[in-house]
Amino acid sequence: MPRTGRKYKCPARGEKGAIMAEEGQQTTTATTSEPPVDWKAKYEESVQHSRTWEERSKANYARVGELEEKLAAYENAKPDGRLEAATKRADEAEAKLASYEHEAQVADWRKAAASKYGVPSDLLSGETEEAIGESAEKLADYLKSRPAAPRFTNPAGVPKTSSSAHSREAEAIRTALFGQRR
């Protein structure tokens, strides 16, 4: 049901108008027991709060300035000589280690190629596995194309059976060639 009525000024509400009920209707007004708001105290509280944050902000700004100075000092500082020396030694050690590892790898490649082709590993050249393999193959081909030397089972011509009895003639020949026995 819509409210109808006229506006009247209510002394309890100030200048705002209140709707009065028509004749014969009862109105119920809720009265609140809220204390009046102390706006001055709220203002002072907010000012105090803002002053606290202002002080914190100034302190943080000062701290930022100190940290920026330290950062600039670190950026402009010369590196420590010990750090440079240690870095240099580490780089040299890494280079030596890489060199040793490479030499060991090349030696392994040479040994494998020498056993595969039947050639001496000292005569192989190259620094890569492919180059060493090609060198071993060429050396093996060269050695196969050369005539082989005849093999003698007993190149000195000494009989296999040795006699402990020396003949006078053999002793005379030996003395003539080499002189007296000592």
**Poorly predicted tracts of residues:** 14-18
- What is the gyration radius calculated from CA atoms? 57 Å
Q: Please, what is the average pLDDT?
A: 80
> What profile does the largest beta sheet have?
2 strands, antiparallel
Describe this structure in words.
This protein has 182 residues and is mostly helical. Among the domains are: 38-77; 94-145. It is built from four helices and two strands. The protein has helices at 39-76, 81-117, 129-145, 168-178; strands spanning 7-9, 17-19. Strands 1-2 form a two-stranded antiparallel sheet. Helix 2 (81-117) packs parallel to helix 3. The radius of gyration is 57 Å and the shape is rod-shaped. The N and C termini lie far apart (155 Å). Mean pLDDT is 80; it is low at 14-18.
